[in-house]
Amino acid sequence: MKKKGGRKALEEALRTLKEQGVRLTPQRQEVLRVLLEAAEGEHFSAEEIWRRVRERYAGVSFDTIYRTLELFVRLGLASEMDFAESCRRYEYAGRGHHHHLVCLKCGRAEELPFCPVDCLERVREEKPRFMVTGHAFRVYGYCQDCQQGVLR
Predict the structure, then answer these.
(1) What is the DSSP string of 102-146?
(2) 38: number of Cβ within 10 Å
(3) Which residues face 81 on adjacent strands?
(4) 80 contact partners, CB below 8 Å, separation of at least 6
(5) Which one-letter DSSP state was computed for residue 39?
(6) How many helices (H) and strands (E) does the chain have?
(7) Helix axis angle, 26-36 to 46-54, nearest 10°
(8) Mind listing the domains of the chain with CATH numbers?
(9) What is the crossing angle of helices 62-74 and 26-36, to 10°?
(10) pLDDT in tens, 81-96
(11) How far is 40 from 143, CA to CA, in rounded Å?
(12) What are the tens digits of pLDDT across the range 95-119?
């Protein structure tokens, strides 16, 4: 699987943090590394990120990871998603705008290569007084591996 980001992406993310006056602690840098080294289609829960960061920084608290993720989402470095499995998942936001197909059984999320822009145009036409500032689009169903035994 293709990786989401490399050295250049890490340098850009660190520059963004510096420009915002954010301290570049080793733990924050490690959270960035985990997000950047994720394979395409991989989305981590805060707990999964915490476990990975603990491999290098054993004393890091879950609260530190959670606050770091909230900070990264606020600064546009990470995207937060809810894939209907009762926990939020995170990914590096530098890959640009995209949407997901989400398996209801295994929770795997696959990135869609397109955006349903026509839906946004319809919102603008039918609700002209509503200012759209963003959107999320997810298609829920069952991946090929999980379809067996599912009623259709």
Answers:
(1) EETTT--EEEESS--HHHHHHHHHH-TTS-------EEEE--GGG
(2) 22
(3) 89
(4) 69, 73, 88, 89, 90
(5) B
(6) 5, 6
(7) 120
(8) 1-93 (1.10.10.10), 97-152 (3.30.1490.190)
(9) 70
(10) 876 666 788 888 876 6
(11) 16
(12) 666 777 878 877 777 777 777 777 8
Which amino acid, 12?
E
For 110, counting Cβ atoms within 10 Å of its Cβ (0-12 exposed, 13-18 middle, 19+ buried), the class is middle
Q: Residue 23, class by beta-carbon neighbours within 10 Å (0-12 exposed, 13-18 middle, 19+ buried)?
A: exposed
- Lookup: tokens for 15: 């520059």
Q: pTM of the entire structure?
A: 0.71
Residue with tokens 């608290």: 61
Concatenate the DSSP letters of all residues of 82-104 into one string: E-SSSSEEEEEGGG-S-EEEEET
